[in-house]
Amino acid sequence: MQLLAKHPYIKTERKLTSTLQYEVEHNRYIFLYNEKVVTEHREFPINEVMDFSYRKLTNQGGILYLHTTHGVYSYMVESSPQDFIEIFRIHFK
């Protein structure tokens, strides 16, 4: 299995206590291999991955969308994943 590209994303987790609510940000990576796409808690065989897209948000980075045969998964990113998307499209489109 060969690593083709990786890109950082942020997972925000909301925590509750009896008196307050707060958010914890986790810095994670999405990995593109020649056989699959891997995130912290999911793996997608490459034959189930249809495409990636990106939507920039005002002053907040953006959202990387992973389009699969089972649905669309979204990942908050601080920087543009354009290079990551291009590598996917060169190898698999």
Name the features.
three-stranded antiparallel beta sheet, 7 strands
Description:
With 93 residues, the protein is mainly β. Helix content is 12%, strand content 59%. The protein contains one helix and seven strands, in the order βββββββα. The chain has one helix spanning 82-92; strands spanning 3-16, 21-33, 36-38, 43-45, 49-56, 62-68, 71-77. The strands form two sheets. Strands 1-2-3-4 form a four-stranded antiparallel β-sheet. The longest helix has 11 residues, at 82-92. The chain is globular, with a radius of gyration of 15 Å. The two termini are 19 Å apart. The mean pLDDT is 94.
Entry summary:
Helix content is 12%, strand content 59%. It has one helix at residues 82-92; strands at 3-16, 21-33, 36-38, 43-45, 49-56, 62-68, 71-77.
Q: What is the topology?
A:
Elements: E1 3-16, E2 21-33, E3 36-38, E4 43-45, E5 49-56, E6 62-68, E7 71-77, H1 82-92
Q: Rg from C-alpha positions?
A: 15 Å
Residue runs with pLDDT of under 50 for 5 or more positions = none
Termini distance? Answer: 19 Å
Q: What is the count of DSSP helices, taking H or I runs of 4+ residues?
A: 1
Q: Could you spell the SSE succession in H and E letters?
A: EEEEEEEH
Strand line-up in the sheet with most strands: 1-2-3-4
- How much beta, percentage-wise? over 45%
Q: Write down the overall geometry.
A: globular
Mean pLDDT, all residues: 94
